[in-house]
Amino acid sequence: MREATREATRTGRVAGPITFRTLQLKPAFTAYVEGVIDAFEQKYPDVKVTWEDVPGDGYNEKLVADAQAGALPDVVNLSTDSFQLLGDRGMLADVARLDPAAAQDYVPGAWEQFKLPGKGDGVYAYPWYVTPEILTYNKELFAATGLDATRPPTTVEQFFDYAEQIAARSQGRYAAFMADPKGRLPGDWQKMGVPILNDGRDRFTFDTDKAVAWVQRMKDLYAKGAMPRESLLKADDVNQLYGSGKIVFGPGSPGFVRDVKRNAPQVYAGTQVAGAVTGTLGHIGIYAQSLGVKRSTEHLDAAAEFAKWVTNGPNQVAFARSATIYPSNAKGLEDTYFSDRGDGTDAETVARAVGAEQLRTAQLDANTLVQWTNQVGDAVVREVQKAILGEQDPRTAVRRAQEEANRLLVRANAGGR
């Protein structure tokens, strides 16, 4: 592809026009982004930044099409999926090589996420804003089923044990959690120590007794009413279910807590926040956005300095104060805004502190490994859903899921994406 034909080099001069693409930030964050750009241009008057913001629908397809046409922006907002698409095609600059000291500026787990298999210590994007996984639950429903609201589950296995007790004692009045196997995998398996990939990272290896046990447990819990029945095959409105007291555990997102506060204040008053369910490895899930620098940009110094500017501590903190996100920048995360729990009674304040603490200390997983593409996830979920519904046994489901995942991986490695 045209974008990968040459690699830009630093000149030592921060100058020239560059384009900056973001994903769905207008109009809510227009003033913030424009302020960041204006301050950068004041510091570097020889740079002109052109900002474009695009919708989420078809974003990955647009990136690939732009790359093929030689129209990729100089600095581009990337999710895990889009980072993989461009990184695998050699279109992103190695920022660890361009800027060796940058690693110390970011939370290690976030920095490590933007490495690519087989590319050694190269890092192909500057980490931007992140959202860690937390645990949110209705402490009143939790206690009503005989569980201690001050002792939430800490492992996947314990989470399932608690869900079983909730299902048994709620008598159908409410469920424990949403089925959502696509959202739970491969994260649950990672936390349980299931080997997702071989050492060469070119074959899936999750067909294990632990993975089979997970599917069996999901099947049993589904049959016992621990999950809303519709949540297995379609995306129920979890905000509505949680806000009406029909489910104990909410999504593991700090943004969800804010939504409950706005829309269901009575349930919010009984909402508790704790550290994410992890496992023997201490892993948590993380949703991360990054800024990639086009490998063939005409103005590498300007593009790299701008990406680093947007992701510095003060700019990330300012962004996080207006959105339910966290800085990947280590100094930004040290801001007292992310450590103050108040009096411990306001769930949103506690959620912010809990999420920040986990980002600083826990080992992080993307929950969507670069090899675990949307296609792989869909293939695995199809087989898992059949097992949960009793249409095939769990061992067969895991075996077939791995076979199909490896077929897709081989095709991807051969350039058939």
UniProtKB/TrEMBL annotation:
Q: Which domain of life is it from?
A: Bacteria
Q: What InterPro entries does the annotation carry?
A: Bact_solute-bd_prot1, SBP
CDD domains linked to this entry: PBP2_TMBP_like (cd13585)
User: Which keywords does UniProt give here?
Assistant: Cell membrane, Lipoprotein, Membrane, Palmitate, Signal
Q: Name one Pfam family in it.
A: SBP_bac_8
Q: What is this protein called?
A: Extracellular solute-binding protein
Q: Which organism is it from?
A: Streptomyces bambusae
